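Morning F.,

Quick status update on the modeling queue. The single chain you submitted on Monday has been processed. Sequence for confirmation:
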Amino acid sequence: MVWMTNRHNLRGSIEDVNTFDGENQPRFQPHELQSTLTSDELQTLIHASYADLDDAEKLAKKYGYYLDKELSNEENKVFKDRRDDDVIIGFRGTKNNQDIATDIALAVGLENYTDRFDKSRSFVDKVRFKYKNNPILAIGDSLGGSIAESVGDKVDRVITSNKGVGLRGIGKKIRKNQTDIRNDTDYISLLSKTQHGGREKIEIKDKTTWLQPLQSHEHKHIRELHRSRI
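Structure tokens below.
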């Protein structure tokens, strides 16, 4: 397979609205898309999704993105590409006790009843309202990947890394706009192997053993892909 070296813009459109009040939500019309990220860019932006706002801003600048501090918060970061119209939402993975509670809910199939999953959908609507005609890519690692997947109907493209999969995810059909990446020794994302569909499934041949679960689950292994396009 030959990977394209030129950049591709995502393309999508929504209906214009005059105000965003949480009720009058922008309507998304999905399109088939191309990615804009290299493996290094993806890993850096995922890392930035875990960082505080100042550190996230510094990390994003390395690859020509700026952090939208008006929309970004500790759980979700919004990055705008300086080179084109692309907007990237980075959903943070597990970082605190509340996230652990969400992980437990995800494991037993109750994620849609949690604050993080519920608020993520309205967050995407706010991003859509501000960037009305911009293509949007959602990314996330672990719990963040599961959240990114849950908003796949509202964005142009989704890329997940070692996403957590619970009971509701077994055998699930993945949307065509989604790419899933996982380390082959990561047991947290193991159930994703039961799923089908999607745009692409990428498995990283990880040198970490099954006996090192925390190291196997780390998103830093994305850099080992050495890919110009994901």
